[in-house]
Amino acid sequence: MRYLTDRKRAVGKGAAHTGTEDHWYMTVSAVALAFLVPVFLIVFGRALGQSQEGVIATFSRPFPAIVTALLVVVGMRHFAKGAQMMLEDYTAGTTRKVLVIAAHSVAYLVIAVALYALAKMTFLGIVLGAMN
Q1: Is the Cβ–Cβ distance between 117 and 60 less than 8 Å?
Q2: Cα(14)–Cα(107) distance, rounded to whole angstroms?
Q3: Residues with Cβ < 8 Å from 46, sequence gap 6 or more?
Q4: Mind listing the domains of the chain with CATH numbers?
Q5: Which GO terms describe its cellular component (predicted)?
Q6: Which of 1, 19, 50, 122 has the most other CB atoms within 10 Å of its CB?
């Protein structure tokens, strides 16, 4: 029979057993966002005030589309993980589960809508470019 004390079970692990991994994930995604947000603001700032065709032409180019996609995916994953960590700290039971699922669902919905919009702009950019 193996007997573990409370201390033996807890050594090296947080309450959820993923504290260090969560911390590193949030740190890495925050650093990535620190680089992506200024680049995206420059790209978005150049497109701001243009006509619809100008915005489509801007975001149908590879660099702005990739920067935007990366920002949305990394940003929403960062949001979902941060919301999950907060909800795990301040809620319990079924409420916790429902709210964590809702936070992840919102994040993935935003990712899906943004990637769809980028794909549609890329397709329209190709079509409009072929017409000219």
Answers
A1: no
A2: 25
A3: 58
A4: 18-131 (1.20.1300.10)
A5: membrane
A6: 122
